[in-house]
# Entry
Amino acid sequence: MKKSVKRTESSIIIRNVFAYFISVLLALGVMSVIILLFGFNVSKVLKTLLTASFRTSFGFQETIKKTIPLIFTTFAFTLPFKIKFFNTGGWGQMLFGATMVAVTGLFLSNSGITLPTYIIIPLLIIVGILAGGFFGLIAGFLTAKYNINPIISTIMLNFVGVQFLNFIATNSYFKDPLEGHPITLPLPKSATLGFFGGIPHSIIFAVVSVLFVYILIKKTRLGYEINAIGYNLDAAKTYGINFPRIIMLTFFIAGALGGLAGTFEVMNIHKKLVEGFALTSGAQYGTFGILTSLIVAGNPIGVPFSAFLMSVLLVGADALQRTMQVPVELVFLSQALIVLFIVIIRQRFERGR
Amino acid sequence: MENEDLVELRNVRKAFGEVVALDNVTFSVKKREIHGLLGENGSGKTTLMNILYGLYSPDKGEIYFEGKGVKIPSPFDSIRLGIGMVHQASTLVPEFTATENIILGTEGDKYSLPLDREREKIKEISKNLGVKFPLNIKVKELSAGIKQKIEIIRALYRGAKLLILDEPTTSLVESEFQELLKSLKALLNSGVTIIFITHKIKEALQACDRVTVLRRGRVQGIEKREDTNKEKLVKLMFMEKEIRVTESALPKVELPPCKKSKDPVLILKNVTVEGGEKSIGLHNVSFEVYGGEILGIASVSGNGEKELAEITINPYKIKNGDILISGKSIKNHETLDVFANRVFYTPEDRIKEGVLPEGSIKENILLGHHAKERFIRNNIFINWEEARKAAVDVIKNYNVMTPTEELAIRRLSGGNIQKVIIGRAFVSPINLLVTHNPTSGLDISTVEFIFKKLVETRNSGSAVLWINEDLDELMIISDRIAILHKGELKEIFERESFDKYKIGLLMIGG
Amino acid sequence: MSFINSFISQTIVYTVVYTLTSLGIVVSGRAGIFNVAGEGIMLASASSGFLAAYLTGNALFGFIVGSLMGAVFGLIIAFVHEKFKVNQFILGISLVILGTGLSDLLYKLIIGVRLTAPRSPATPLVKIPLISRIPVFSAFLTQDVIVYFMYIVSIFLWWFYYRTKLGLETRAIGENPKAADVVGVNVTKRRYLSTIIGSALIGIAGAYLPISITGTYTPDISAGRGFMAIGIAIFASWRPERAILGGFLFAAIEVISFRLQVISRTIPYQFLLMLPFILVLVVMIIFNKQIEFPASVGKPYSRE
# Structure
């Protein structure tokens, strides 16, 4: 009896991997046509794209640096996706989390308040969680109370987040007078994180987040209720699951995770708030988070691997543009195509069951 | 020519994946007869007619209409031929008026919308049939009975020569059924042929000139009304099954003498609940249910039975009055708090409201119990080992056909799903079971199983509040039957004085 | 007076973008397909439409290409949804991402990096003789062909959905596809047509941005309007005659916040720029109770 179940579970994973490969091949096919049309060498493009992360230790470090925020923004999308809602606000949640962390850190240092590292770092992380969570909660609340589609509310909040960051980064209290681009003063050193060799300290938090999401979804009552709503909202409501409460909680946690993506970018990588920090290889971390999440189809353990793969391609895309003048958008587009194909193939598997 | 075939389906085969719904079925209907298609739930009747109407395409087989071979790839084609169908569940657009629904999809100038002219034509047709209904109200505000009339007119408006009715009596009481029979006779006279799908032997005998019996996708026999009787039809419908059946081809289950508890388990005192779009709500309803009895609630769909069924999961919806479980008021409780008082509920729409389709059987069994101490550790974590044990118990005790408790519940048959739903109610001991239409759409063995479980529950001293659409079923194992009409409790009948005609009359306000 | 005139003129121009996009969403929504890919379609059409206009020197040709690009996206949405039953929102979001990537890619590959941005040929204006004298009215009507197109399409769609049998049948699909199917309406065909036509409208709106408004293509030229248009379609309860009102309202807010930036000393301009986006949410909260959806929008339909 148990054997047939194990077979089902592993066959699902095999199917997903299979679907991924077919999609990659299909997307590759489409991309090759475009590559050839514009006069580039297909094999050279592929080689640069796939190996840029592994040729130098710098490349590898860059890949890890991209993977960390990506893990967070992927979870930011995955969690509400489990209750059939689309959190397209990962970007705004990342921005707002980062902004509030910078605001708090700079406020403390500007007011001359010095706090030891072991206080200020957890404090800023909590600020990031609350700020991102707040952004998510707004969307969750609007859905719970007014039935407003979260796609709309989170995207509107994205734009609010962009403006707010710009405001802080150009405001005389926070901004760095020496920089032309909107950038704030640097955070106090005690408020920043370091590196293990070339790997940012925040990787620990990324790993913790994977465990957190896994345990939440599989082992807790909240996770059960989230899954139940995702399976069938009417049945969940019939048997006492509080839908408004769960939506708001889910969006809060999702927003908090998005906020953490921004938090660690500010605290570990840039050590200040830089406009445009949430963009990578021509698009937002939030967007790539959505793509990664759709590829992994909701399995928390698969997220870090998928995020790593995605980052490899992003580093490769940067290298392509730098060395061969192939626009980054080519890779970006192929990622979207891969997701489209995967989603289609997965549906075909579903219908066959 | 009276004896000519109007339509014939020959050697039809239809399978859905591995499930064979129709196996080499040949079915024919003569002109100007009412032909019954009789069989229990799941026998393939609706599938066969959906093929005739163009909603399904047969894997094998041919269709002949008025002597000619035809292909019917979609309803557009069957309507063209002169076939009309009234489905079991309403297929009207709720936001449109009756007029708009009736003219929807008809041929003619597509770039205009002459509603006034059409209204006159509809009134004509309705008058000829002796039917009346409001033409300018959105149909979502109309009752099931009226909606059915609209659907019949919708078919006739297109000049149907053949009218297929799928389980038309689901929402009708005895007197309304007689009215329907009169209308059908009038239709016959005006030249329309009728196919009458049903699972009720008594109705088939009353309404139909001939009856074709289907069982498990195969034709078991074709009987003429004058040459057959209830026993023959029962035999054809159920064959070798060891089931004793009543007058209406329902399982005969014994009900031992009632041993009521001293105090009532459930008390409703002057309960008023606001209705929704489709239903009237409850007005000043009071009654009691004792341990050791089954109280059946009989009502026509839309008269407040849904609000009554949901009274334990939504007690906060009570505007006035009170509701008590074992003497304790639960008026403002949350669903799970109510359940903690040894209460459980099974909803009428099992797929839509009762289960998590992609979830495992284990996850489904936990639903409703997921806040109970037995299944929670440290207030945060689920005790999956206990949940697994509970699931395995239900599978064993309720004979659920599944290789494992991890299987997604949607892979089970309707009957097995309902067994899980009922089994789930008993995972923790209960004093009150509230169940709404637990037997709808199920085959007779499962219905018998469910009846036996309800009686078992009652015999063990628990109270059963059983809201059921089918009065025949209620009369078999209820100790008392209460009638709900327009949200009010009309009367309660004791078992000795059960009277189908009287009860039916009260159900429609007579 | 001339202030009002210039305000209206400027607003009408943006109204075109909002209205045509939301009409496109309404059209596919009435047939049951909830198109959230508007932003991606707009960008892809903006890019391809601009390139077509620039390379051929003909603005109208740019609009044709833009609408074709939109139609292709519509075809993809209808096909993938009807054939594979993929969730409409996942599909829409993926296409937003795809459209965004495609738009910049096309531009970069064809134009590359230049010091001065290429300009598109202007859209022909239509001036009705007498009306151009009437003060406020003329601001509404002394506009380019696409503005007139917007007026005509709005009226046409209202007439189509509420005064014709075809429109009744299409609306039935959005409310209850089964009901439409059983009376012989071809649900699949209508969904394809509605989504293709609706997306073509969005494509025209997209092309309008670089060709008629800014004069050149820039990345992110749509600036979220594709999503705001979803809000407009919802807030208009999916009625074409209300979509144009919603479009005007949002365009007005956009123009006002723009102008306020220039004159305001106290409010930091970033908060003014936030206004349109916050307003979408406020409007949806206020009108929450009155909003109606076609009952089956967003859900796939199959006979079994």
